[in-house]
Amino acid sequence: MQMLSTIQQACQGARGASQGNVSHEEIEQSDERFISGINEFKTLPEQGAFRHRLDPANPCADEENEFSFLRNNSNPAHRKMYLSSRNFILSEWVKNCKTQLTYKDVHAALFSNGLAYTKEQNSLSFKAYGFLERYGYINSGKFDVVEPKPKCNKKVLVIGAGISGIACARQLDYFGFDVTVIEARERVGGRIQTFKKGSYVADLGAMIVTGLGGNPFSILARQFNIPYRRINNECKLYDHSGEVIDEFKDEVMEQEFNRLLAASKYASSQLGFTETCPGRPVSLGQTIELIIMHQEQLVLKKTEKFYRNLVNLQTEIRDQAKQAQTLYSRIEYEKSLVKQLENKRGRNVKEEFQFKSAVFNVNDFAQQYENSMKSIKILQEKFAEMKKEVPVDTYMSTQDRNILDWHAANLEFANSTPLNNVSLSHWDQEMLMSFPAIHYSIESGLGVIPDTLSE
After folding, report:
1. In Å, how far from its chain's centre is CA 420?
2. Quick one: how far is CA 408 from the chain centroid?
3. Residues facing 162 on adjacent strands
């Protein structure tokens, strides 16, 4: 089964150690190097689309729903012009996301790059600009407004001042709505909460920026100039007694945990294992334990088979040794008979027959004895080789299981719940939505994001 390791990327921050402050400029440079290093994104417009989790060469589902010519591809030329304009607009927003990107600015930039010469180009670029602004791809977060939107005299009530509620309220306010936010707590942020006491800062909820590739936070980071730290994944793991876990052992157990995840995924997607009984969905934690039990049984069967083969080999060696001993005794007897008869003069017919038979038997038994001793030597060598490769009698030692449980706890941390509560069928549904590149932590705590957005 193929190893599934991508889910571990979302958990790296829980284990990583801070590597020191990283300047905003270094973050941008690192971000730029990562995105420009992806082979399929060679131009700035393509990179701009990637930063917003859009396919540079294809429209997203929302675009297809809004524009029929994208949905049915009735006009490939218009489709291509639209995507070129859309990607270009996104790259312009990335260049300066601290100031409102107006259509006037967009048109001027498009025109200077040969993308707004015709009526069709202008119409399609206007549609692209409108779509991107309506859906928050551009002119989102906290930025200086150059051309305020006219008030629409409509009231909107946003329930909850979590990060989504605040972002929604801020965007609606930008669009001209009269927005009121209701929050039960005496703070904003929802599941993002930073505890501060003196110089100490601790995030009680979300705490890791899991990669900037296509992450909306990359835009917020540019807007807020937030100081944050690169996560260093090279972090020692300690056991319950304070001893450092061997690095190789840790890597092996991490790979084994990933294999268990892969096996769980295979059981669900390929074998249709989703319920323990009708109407009772099986969890990821249950499946992992079942696979571990199965692996333990396989190890026991393998060990049992090994020792059974070893005993059979010993029995074969013993049988060959008995046969060789019998042959040796018969050789000695026949030799004595030959010696007795060969010097006797005037052997009668019976004695002559006994003499020649004894000579023949000596040679025949000697050949059989030689072959038997060769077989014994081969079997003994095979026995010695087998003893060098004695299989382990357990799937995992106590220490192995403790390390595996740490990686399981790491995944539980990423999902904010025990694995027995995590659906086997849907535990990895966000894999495709994960953000690549380096992980970061916020020096002043993630709470600075909703706090700044709510200002």
Report:
1. 19
2. 13
3. 189
